[in-house]
Amino acid sequence: MCAAVNNLYCVGRNYKLHAEELGNKVPTEPLIFLKPSHAAVRLDKETIQLPKDSGQVHYEGELVLRIARDYVPGMSVEELVDSMALGLDFTLRDIHNDLQKKGLSWTPAKGFKNAAPLTPFIAFPSKEELEATDFTVRKNGEEVQRGNVKNMIFSLQTIVDFIGSRYGLGKDDVIFTGTPAGVGPTVSGDSFELYWGDRLMGTCLIG
Fold it and tell me: Would 137 disulfide with which of 27, 61, 205, 207, CB 3.0-4.6 Å?
C-alpha cells in the first residue's frame, strides 16, 4: 500500500511544451483536477495493473508535494510542504480526449485504480536544490521525460496558494504538480524508473 493520502490534487498543463504537444492551449491560471485517494499506489519495485480495454494508457511523470499542515494564507511553500516524491499520472488518453471534446469531467480518464503511483517520499529540498535538479522518467531504460520546477508555467508557491485558497489544503494532501513534454503510451511489460537528479526514487513494472 501507498503511504496515507488524503486529497490528491493534480495540476494540468503546467509545462508549456507539454500543453503544446497535446494541442492544448496554455492556461492562464492553474488547471486543477482531482484523483481519488484510491488511485495512489506504491511506485517502489511494484507491478502495477492498468486497464487493458479502455484504449491507450499514457504515462505522465511528475514532481509530487506532500502537505504537512493546514494551509493559512501567506504561508510559504517551504512552511507548508514537508516532503516530496515523484509520481506517474496515468491517463486513459482516448477517453480523456473524448471527455475534453464534450466538456465533461476528466475523472473517468484520470481517476481509475492505480492511476497515481508514488515513489517513497524524501525531505523537501531547498529552493536552490529544486531549481538545480531535474527529475526524469525512464521507460524500458530510455529517458522519455525530463522536468524542472524552473520550467513550470505556475510556480509551486502559485500552485499551493491557488489550491489552498479555493479548495483547502491539509496534512497528508498531495499535489501532482504537472508533467513536462514527452508523455506517451505504455503497455504490459514496460518498466519505469523515476530519478531525482542521479537518485533512483522508484521503479515499477506494468502488468
Answer: 61
